[in-house]
Design a protein that fits this description.
The chain is mainly alpha-helical and about 150 residues long. It has one domain. The mean pLDDT is about 90. The chain starts with a helix and ends with a helix.
């Protein structure tokens, strides 16, 4: 009984972990994990999308926190954005405003938007809403295309 419960949770835990990493500045591909699990059919699609979305948004919260600390961290070697990347992301963020966070799911530049949003002191509730909508819509579209 316990082994069955653990084996049911293992794919969800793997999806969640990959989504958190992919949502942060670390390189990961949660879409591949989601696609494999949707194709396998062992879990309800809505649950897979919810787990992926929650994990990916939590990863973006890490980026937001990095952005809030950007003034102290920006010059460090491990900081996720180069000066050129910072300038590009800032220019796009300033040109389009917080609505650009709906594109936070876009590889590479989306992470930049979430870091810049923290640096710009975007209200957290607004950040969380826009990022959740953008990332959730992306996962729903992917899952719908595969189901």
């Amino acid at each position: 009984m316990l082994a069955a419960a653990v084996s049911d949770l293992a794919p969800l835990a793997a999806l969640f972990a990959s989504a958190v990493l992919a949502g942060s500045v670390l390189p990961a591909q949660s879409e591949l994990v989601l696609a494999a699990l949707v194709r396998a059919g062992g879990q309800p699609v809505w649950l897979l999308v919810a787990v992926a979305t929650i994990g990916n948004v939590l990863g973006a919260f890490v980026n937001y926190g990095l952005g809030r600390s950007a003034a102290q961290l920006r010059g460090r070697r491990w900081f996720p954005l180069s000066d050129a990347g910072w300038q590009r992301s800032t220019a796009l963020f300033n040109r389009h405003g917080t609505w650009i966070l709906l594109l936070s799911w876009v590889p590479i530049i989306g992470d930049g938007f979430t870091v810049i949003a923290g640096a710009a002191r975007t209200p957290f509730w607004w950040f969380a809403l826009l990022v959740s909508v953008g990332k959730g819509a992306r996962y729903w579209l992917l899952a719908a295309a595969l189901a």
